[in-house]
Design brief:
about 1000 residues; mainly beta; 22-stranded antiparallel beta barrel; five-stranded mixed β-sheet; 49 strands; about 5% helix
């Protein structure tokens, strides 16, 4: 009996212990998550509240989370969340199976968008703000964050000035806002303010935005109207782009790999004369029968095939996110490597990101964002801005490839580059072997660190203080070397071989103190007060040494002291900006909203009488959908009317010290008693009244949602007038100065923006589309106080009061001078040469016969994207385009001029002759120059398929949350009438006055790539 009792006691104790252990370990909870339509929701986040543990649903919406148990006496709660759906907390209790239906957040009333110095619910926004998802930003393989915005946001024109790896990009938000200054928007990365470029940048300049990894970006908000941008005052006239990087979240740690590899090739080459056709042309030009039997020369060397190549592109990123309720962490490392489709060009970037948020207690939070980049750019020469036609052939690798005689050879027998001066008895010294230009080293190494440190403190209920300390450190080293080996042996001299080193350092320090107070009165009135003090300091210095005359190429530019001649130069600048601002946001019943903003900025760059500028704004919104007279209109799900007015400024029009009297070296030496001395002379006249450029903008917007927001539309109409533009006015020579910089000019931009989104299918097959279009018109209102009505900025581009910026003004091409016709005096006309129209009928060709023949400003820019998903498959396509803009094809001008010693475009084979009296191509003539006419003004409209992507997500594998494979084609096709390499072009980069000019910039590539995304 005792044995039995002992046995049952031991058995009972064993069962109790097992039960206790089972209870302590918790149970496994599983289930399925669906949407309101009953379809599975993959990728739903399921987190055990107040822990770091969690999981995500698979492609069928199923999930499983082990060891779910109560903690600290509190029941276990699972939080289900998914973008676009209302998050839900579910108490587990004794359940092991929980199936859940998430409801769509159709009206997105509580969706938070980033605005200046804070966030707002989408319902509260009164300004014109557009958002871009991170998934859209990296849909195409881009090295530059700005490239990802192209055609995705209405009112934003992104021009890929150069498609070189890391190439130059111009961004215009609601048009060009300056003449001499910078029209690029202000970019703010996690609170750190940066600029895309400077007015002096040229098309070959590496874009500063290329040093930021697009894969690190969580979201981008584009602030377009004065209400949204006025909070940034002096730097907001060109719009603001807010970039938020990915941060950690409480819950399970996630490790994600995202990578792709692909190949690129030139999308187009230009047809040129064959060797046989070139030989015949040379014989006609020089009349010396240099090529005795041109027909026997055949096709000759295809120089474009020698400089273009199939080039790889790849990106690999590893990121880790996670954390607890107190500390969240996000880490990432990225390697990006893009070889250019032109030999010797490459862009390589190594980057890392560290974002940390730590909650010390309920009242204090601290954090940091650190982005580090090391970029290496190897460039080749292209995109000449010389107005002559010779420079493009000798200093641009593309021009050299087009103009290189196909009768010459690229290499010596030993494999070295064969200079043209050593071939054909030196006849072709004026053109350059393009392989020699590829041998010229032009490397830029950039180290950049963007760091933000902040502390967030809750002082009282509703009262919050945030202190932010930001730094942008950038160091660049540019190395160049042109070797002796590419110089013809007969041309070698003491100056052969040239190199340089330029070291530049930039330090931007910014402190911001932000005080915010939130309160609600009588549950109807919401009030938010924001006050900010900011102080910024910009330090810049650069040092350059140039050297010529090297004994050999053994050391390149690493031993400049070996050169016979050396020059050095240095520059340093410092500028400061202090800002004070306040903003009041008021809302009544989430139906009526009013925002008031005022900012005062003081800049060291402006004159003593106008250091400070005042930038106010007012905006309001009315959510008409919540009015009683629309409550029974079921098909209308959202309707909001917005209106705003404000003034923003631009300090980017000038460099430091322009308001002061300045002196500089004369640029040449003076000889006194057989001693050379450098002279110093006055170079700039003081202007104590130099002040801010200011843009006054009015915006009216309408947000419409239909059919439970399955269709949504946004319409904005705006007018922006920019006055006190910084402009250089000519002075009489008696003043002792040539020019003075002052606030003389003014511009106007007005336009319409349209955006539409549709969720067409939401069942097993999901299909959504989005589109946007922008119509912008600009006009010069004044240049220099009424003195000048029109002036040429190039031989074909003008600034004219009452007209858009950068119009083309040329002669009008009227065919070819034929036998028996009268050749009008006044230009270098000849039989078989270009004939020009006598516009004013005075019997001669003069400047009075030049008329406006083209407009580089597009009438319409647009974008369209579509996304489809069925089970585990996804498909997306993205198109962009421009309509109504003209391009001055300066390269065509150069390669249709039949003056000898260079190859020409294929059409010149049909040139005029006595037996071929055509009306297009001039006859050959030594040293002839074609007149600048509208023959070279072409329609630059285009429609481009920028990306097509097909992806497949594997069924969930144990230990792996998600695996997705995809294939992508970029720049699949371009529909255009333009005859050049590409219609998206501007050789003058970010210029505000010379637009739409093609002088052979780096052409875009067509790429095919495959990618892999894995989350653990």
């Amino acid at each position: 009996m005792k044995i039995r009792i002992r046995f049952f006691l031991v058995l009972g104790l064993t069962i109790l212990v097992a039960a206790w252990k089972a209870h302590a370990q918790g149970s496994t909870v599983s289930g399925r998550v669906t949407g309101p339509d009953g379809n599975a929701l993959p990728g739903v986040s399921i987190i055990l509240k107040n822990t770091q543990r969690g999981t995500t649903s698979d492609a069928d919406g199923r999930y499983s989370l082990p060891s779910v148990q109560a903690t600290n006496g509190q029941p276990a709660v699972l939080t289900f969340s998914f973008i676009g759906y209302v998050s839900q907390d579910v108490t587990v209790g004794n359940r092991t199976t929980i199936d859940l239906t998430l409801q769509t957040d159709d009206r997105s009333l509580n969706e938070v968008v980033v605005v200046g110095y804070g966030t707002q619910r989408k319902i509260e926004t009164t300004g014109s703000i557009a958002s871009v998802k991170s998934t859209d930003l990296v849909q195409t393989p881009v090295a530059n964050v700005a490239q990802g915005l192209q055609a995705r946001v209405s009112g934003v024109q992104v021009t890929q000035n150069s498609a070189a790896p890391g190439g130059n990009v111009s961004v215009r938000i609601r048009g060009t806002n300056s003449i001499n200054g910078n029209s690029e928007p202000l970019y703010i990365v996690d609170g750190i303010q940066i600029s895309n470029s400077n007015p002096s940048d040229n098309v070959t300049t590496l874009s500063p935005l290329s040093t930021i990894n697009p894969n690190d970006v969580e979201s981008i908000e584009v602030l377009k109207d004065a209400s949204a941008t006025a909070i940034y005052g002096s730097r907001a006239a060109n719009g603001v782009v807010l970039i938020t990087t990915k941060r950690g979240r409480a819950g399970a740690t996630r490790i994600t790999y995202d990578g792709y590899y692909g190949v690129q090739k030139a999308a187009k080459t230009l047809p040129v004369l064959s060797a046989a056709e070139f030989g015949q042309l040379e014989n006609e030009v020089f009349r010396n029968n240099f090529y005795q039997n041109p027909a026997s020369l055949g096709e000759g060397v295809n120089w474009q095939n020698l400089i273009f190549r199939q080039a790889p592109i790849q990106s690999h990123q590893l990121s880790i996110t996670g954390g607890s309720e107190k500390t969240q962490l996000s880490l990432s490392g990225n390697y990006f490597n893009q070889d250019g489709i032109i030999i010797a060009s490459n862009f390589k970037r190594y980057s890392y990101r560290i974002n940390v948020d730590h909650k010390i207690n309920d009242r204090l939070k601290i954090g940091t964002s650190i982005l580090g980049t090391y970029a290496i750019n190897n460039g080749v020469p292209y995109g000449s801005t010389s107005l002559g036609d010779a420079d493009v052939v000798s200093s641009s690798i593309l021009g050299a490839a087009l103009g290189a005689p196909p009768t010459l050879q690229p290499y010596r027998p030993d494999g070295s580059v064969f200079p043209f001066g050593e071939q054909a008895n030196g006849q072709y010294r004026e053109v350059t072997n393009p392989l020699g230009l590829a041998a010229v080293m032009n490397q830029t190494n950039i180290r950049r660190t963007l760091a933000n440190f902040f502390a967030d403190a809750t002082l009282l209920k509703g009262l919050n203080y945030r202190a932010s300390f930001n730094i942008d450190l950038q160091n660049s080293l540019r190395d160049t070397y042109s070797p002796r080996s590419i110089v013809s042996r007969t041309d070698l001299n003491d100056n052969s071989g040239s190199g340089s080193k330029t070291n530049s350092n930039s330090t931007v320090l910014l402190h911001e103190s932000i005080l915010t107070y939130n309160t609600t009165l009588a549950e109807r009135h919401s009030l938010k007060f924001t006050g900010v003090f900011a102080t910024q300091s910009n330090l810049f210095n650069t040092n350059t040494i140039n050297a010529t005359g090297f004994p050999n190429d053994a050391t390149g530019d690493e031993a400049l002291q070996l050169a016979l001649a050396r020059t050095v130069s240095s520059y340093r600048s410092k500028e400061g900006l202090d800002s004070y601002l306040g903003r009041i946001n008021y809302g009544y019943r989430d139906r009526y909203f009013l925002d008031l903003t005022a900012r005062i900025d003081g800049s060291s760059k402006f004159g003593a009488n106008h250091k400070y500028g005042f930038f106010p704004a007012i905006a309001g919104a009315w959510r008409i959908i919540d009015e009683s007279f629309l409550k029974n209109v079921n098909w209308l799900s959202d309707l909001k009317l917005r209106g705003s007015w404000g003034i923003t400024g631009n300090a980017g029009g000038i460099s430091p010290y322009q308001s002061l009297a300045t002196v500089s070296s004369s640029g040449s030496d003076y000889q006194f008693n057989h001693t050379y001395l450098t002279g110093i002379n006055p170079s700039g006249i003081a202007n104590p009244d130099l002040r801010w450029e200011k843009s006054a903008q009015t915006d009216i917007g309408l947000d419409i949602g239909l059919l439970n927001n399955r269709l949504s539309f946004i319409v904005d109409v705006y007018q922006k007038t920019t006055r006190d533009l910084l402009y250089v006015r000519a002075l009489p020579l008696s003043s002792g100065y040539a020019t003075i910089t002052g606030n003389f000019a003014s511009l106007q931009n007005k336009g319409i923006e349209l955006a539409a989104n549709a969720r067409i299918l939401q069942g097993a097959l999901k299909w959504d589309v989005s589109a946007n279009a922008t119509i912008n018109r600009n006009k010069v209102l004044d240049l220099d106080g009424g003195t000048t009505q029109e002036r040429f900025v190039t031989t074909y581009s003008i600034l004219s009061v009452g007209q858009p910026l950068g119009l083309f003004k040329t002669y009008v091409f009227d065919g070819i001078n034929q036998s028996g016709e009268t050749i009008l005096p006044g230009y270098d006309g000849r039989l078989g040469g270009h004939k020009l129209k006598d516009i004013n009928g005075d019997g001669q060709i003069t400047a009075a016969d030049q008329v406006i023949t083209g407009n580089p400003n597009p009438k319409l820019i647009f974008g369209f994207s579509t996304n489809l998903a069925y089970k585990s498959f996804d498909f997306s396509a993205f198109l962009s385009g421009s309509q109504g803009n003209d391009i001055y094809n300066q390269a065509r001008f150069a390669f249709e001029t039949p003056l000898g010693q260079r190859n020409l475009l294929k059409g010149v084979a049909n040139r005029w002759s006595a037996t071929n009296p055509n009306q297009e191509y001039a006859s050959a003539a030594q040293g002839s120059r074609l007149p600048v006419s509208d023959r070279f003004v072409e329609d630059g409209s285009y429609l481009r398929c920028k990306n097509i992507t097909l992806g497949y997500t594997l069924p969930q594998i144990k230990g792996i949350q998600r695996i997705r494979f995809y294939a992508s084609v970029n720049n699949l096709f371009t529909i255009t009438k333009y005859s050049g390499f590409d219609p998206e072009v501007n050789s003058y980069a970010g210029s505000n006055t010379v637009l739409g000019v093609d002088n052979l910039v780096y052409p875009p590539a067509r790429s095919v790539l495959g990618g892999l995304q894995v989350t653990f």
